[in-house]
Design brief:
It is built from seven helices and seven strands; from the N terminus they run βαβααβαβαβαβαβ. By secondary structure, the protein is of the alpha/beta class. The longest helix has 19 residues. The radius of gyration is 17 Å and the shape is globular.
Length: 208
């Protein structure tokens, strides 16, 4: 047994919308039930979200296991994409790069994104690692071999489709990122100007 003090609570997503920090689109029921609007966030999540969204600040979130580091960066990312969709300016192009030290952690994050973005077909995401197939058909077949049978239309699973229409949220690892930066075929993933401009770089599990 291990004792742990309770973590201080902050505002809920609904209260952050009321405060003008998050987009009103959160109230439209577009995000999966994994992020209920009325559940209080931890205080460190609340503070991180406000500093990223309103303050345009870089943040480091260090807290215990299972204490919401993922929400601290996913909520600002999704909020940005919801705002673009609301304004009619959401086009293909990487807005957020999520970098992981190993594929298993990237795969776990994919499961989370499938839950959150099931009702948001306009927000695209994809994992580009050494395991990623070249075509969508091959990628779907590989997922089914892993017993993943519900494949969302907004999950890009082939290298060719990610090069043609880069996803809004791109997951990779450090080794693959080096290859992506060097290969001309992958250059569309790194557009930096205009409507395809990057907004977020997340180094998850950075202690590893």
């Amino acid at each position: 047994l291990e004792s742990a003090p309770p973590y201080a609570l902050g505002r809920s997503l609904g209260e952050l919308v009321e405060a003008g920090i998050l987009s009103p689109s959160w109230l439209d029921g577009l995000i999966g039930d994994d992020l209920p609007l009325d559940r209080p966030l931890y205080l460190h999540q609340d503070q991180a979200i406000e500093r990223v969204v309103s303050g345009k600040r870089n943040v480091v979130v260090a807290t215990g296991t299972g204490r919401g580091k993922t929400e601290s960066f996913l909520i600002p990312i999704i909020d940005k994409l919801l705002r673009e969709h609301l304004n009619g300016t959401l086009r293909p192009g990487v807005r957020a790069l999520l970098v992981y030290p190993m594929n298993a952690l990237a795969n776990d994050q994919l499961k989370r994104l499938r839950l959150l973005l099931e009702r948001c077909p306009f927000i695209t995401f994809g994992r580009y690692t050494g395991e990623t197939a070249y075509s969508r058909d091959d990628g779907i077949a590989a997922l089914r071999q892993q017993q993943i049978h519900r494949i969302l239309p907004n999950e890009l699973v082939g290298r060719d489709e990610m090069q043609d229409t880069p996803p809004h949220v791109l997951l990779t690892n450090y080794a693959m990122l080096e290859y992506l930066l060097m290969r001309p075929a992958d250059s569309p993933l790194f557009e930096v100007d205009g409507e395809k401009g990057w907004q977020f770089i997340v180094l998850d599990e950075v202690h590893t």
